[in-house]
Design a protein that fits this description.
About 20% of the residues lie in helices and about 35% in strands. It is α+β, with helices and mostly antiparallel strands and about 140 residues long. It folds into 2 domains: about 70 residues, Nuclear Transport Factor 2, Chain: A, CATH 3.10.450; about 60 residues, Archaeosine Trna-guanine Transglycosylase, Chain: A, domain 4 (Roll). A 5-stranded mixed beta sheet has the order 5-7-8-9-6.
């Protein structure tokens, strides 16, 4: 398992056993996670395989919203639960002031509403900045 995946597991309290049977691969500054079957399928040569799990920056590792929506139910640390109004603001890309409590560390956090994982945010007490991808309307 790549160190970046271990770091995210530790930060969010996700058991490494969740990754049993999965392969992680680093391509430039991004880590992808996929099943062994997906990685061994060579009939078609896609640009990348699997779920984009995280991006690496010089001083941090940012989990993707999509990965956290899949794995976030297993998270036990650095999670912030918000109400419906705050969730709407964050989904629209806003920054909100929030008291997340003493157990939530500054840095990347998991944002939940009514038990549903919305995605990731960047928390620097007391501000929570949305890292959730902005909605893109479908053209007809």
């Amino acid at each position: 398992m790549l160190s970046q995946v271990r770091d995210i597991c530790h930060r969010f309290g996700i058991s490494e056993s969740v990754f049993k049977g999965l392969v992680d691969i680093q391509l430039q500054d991004t880590v992808f996670v996929a099943t062994e079957d997906v990685m061994s399928f060579d009939l078609v040569r896609p640009m990348r395989r699997g779920l984009r799990f995280c991006r690496m920056f010089p001083r941090s590792v940012k989990p993707t919203t999509f990965a956290m929506q899949v794995l976030g139910r297993s998270a036990t640390r650095n999670c912030i639960d918000v109400d419906n109004q705050t969730a709407r603001q964050l989904v629209n890309g806003s920054q909100v002031e929030i008291d997340a409590g003493p157990d939530v560390e500054n840095g990347f956090v998991l944002i939940r509403c009514q038990g549903f994982v919305l995605g990731t945010g960047l928390y620097k007490r007391p501000l929570l900045k949305s890292q959730i991808p902005k909605y893109r309307p479908v053209e007809e």
